[in-house]
Amino acid sequence: MKVVAWHRSGRVRLPRGEGPWAWLAAGSVSLSLLLLALLLMLLATRGLGHFWPSDVDQVTLADGRVLAGRAVKEAPLPDDQGMERLYRTDNRDLDGDIWEWVPVPDIETLSQPRDLVVLERRRWGAFIGRLVAWLPAQGERREGAAAWDALQARLAALDRQRDAIARLREESLLPLARRLEAEGEHPRTVRALTEVQARIRALHEAMAGDVLILESVDGRRLRQPVEEVLGAMRPNAMGPGAKLVAWGDGVWRFLSEGPRAANAEGGVWPAIFGTILLVMLMSLVVTPFGVLAAVYLNEVAHQGRLTRLVRIGVRNLAGVPSIVYGVFGLGVFVYGLGGRLDQWFFEDSLPSPTFGTGGLLWASLTLALLTLPVVIVATEEGLARIPDRQREGALALGATRLEMLSRVVLPMATPAMLTGMILAVARAAGEVAPLMLVGVAKLAPQVPVDGDFPFLHLERKFMHLGYHIFDAAFHGNDVQAAMPLVYATALLLVLVILVLNLTAIFLRHHLRSRHGSLSRY
């Protein structure tokens, strides 16, 4: 379509457009998507790349020293003297540190021997060196390829034994210990507990005894108990396929195991479970209260000055810093309600608190209070967009006011309710400050759900992905070593929030298509 403009030279036809604002809006959206893609790429590269078994360099320096490690980064030396390279050498029990800056001009030789071994250990972190010999508890000493084959077979057996011990603890030991604490020293319970402890002790004894003789690249030897070894590989001798399999195994262990070494190593399964459970409980609490409050403000309350003041107050509460809600939850929920519950129902356990300390229940209520204004505002806006003729038509056909609200208005406003829930989930899943006051823990290897009645234990502390990132990044003994896991956990938190939001968006789309175009607001 053309518009006509007049100029001194005569009549001029100009194309009609939206002006610069449309291009500015489109550019802003494109820039935002680009920044989001760059953020995800950074998290994926730094986080997932940590699990790739990179090659190990053996470096000989000009002064005769020999070291082995994985190159991390390079930085310029002062006065333009070249570059220096940071190697992760591990072997903390031998060297006291796992990092070594090496001036690149001082490197005499650099190689990647195929026999270099990387061991993942429960204590002291990883080891980089050579496997000299295998000393079994019973049997002959093995060296070379025979020692490596024996180690691989033994590690597979140790994984099965660790799984058996974990199952015995979760399915038998812990329930019996709780029953013994609740019922007293009943002979049958004591006998069953003793039998389970004996089985666990026997499995531990079967794991012990085997020893590895290890040697660092500079000739120092070390005796390593095999029961402390979690994994072994030779990265320089692995092909792309083997490395891909090892990478997948590392990612799976990160997702399925618990943390260790002060959250600097291991997995984040308890934090994943705690984050999802917390968000689900928060949604179950905040959605009905937020919807009822919005229905009252928009459909029931007299639209006067007091109602307008309430709306202003609700919108202002959405901007209150989250730490304020944490302080409120600590004072009202934990010390107030929790202390009362302990006095009424758990007096025998005092002074050890049951509900009078931070836990999953109080954290869920605190986040529900934090996100309640978001749900109220989104739901009320959806209710306000429903035409009055829908209400009047339902009443004209003989429906009561309650039937009109429950069968006409609320179904049409359901997409708006889910919009509020999506916004609430997006905010609550990433909050850390209030959780530090009302129940999150640095380490809680037991998830709040188990097979012991009442199955869901709301009084227990829990782990959270956001707090796990904060703790690993700022409270670890070696922040540099923990940074890859920080990136991986941050990527995982983004994906968890994305999955939760996509689930709610899918439900909203389904309800929109079900209730027709009138619900498209």
From TrEMBL:
Residues 272-504 form the ABC transmembrane type-1 domain. Keywords: Cell membrane, Membrane, Transmembrane, Transmembrane helix, Transport. It is found in: Cell inner membrane; Cell membrane. One of its GO terms (molecular function) is phosphate transmembrane transporter activity. GO terms for cellular component: plasma membrane. GO terms for biological process: phosphate ion transmembrane transport. Coiled coil: none annotated. The keyword Acetylation does not apply. The chain crosses the membrane at residues 21-44, 268-297, 317-338, 358-379, 408-429, 485-507. It is a multi-pass membrane protein. PROSITE patterns: ABC_TM1 (PS50928). Belongs to the binding-protein-dependent transport system permease family. CysTW subfamily. This is Phosphate transport system permease protein PstA.
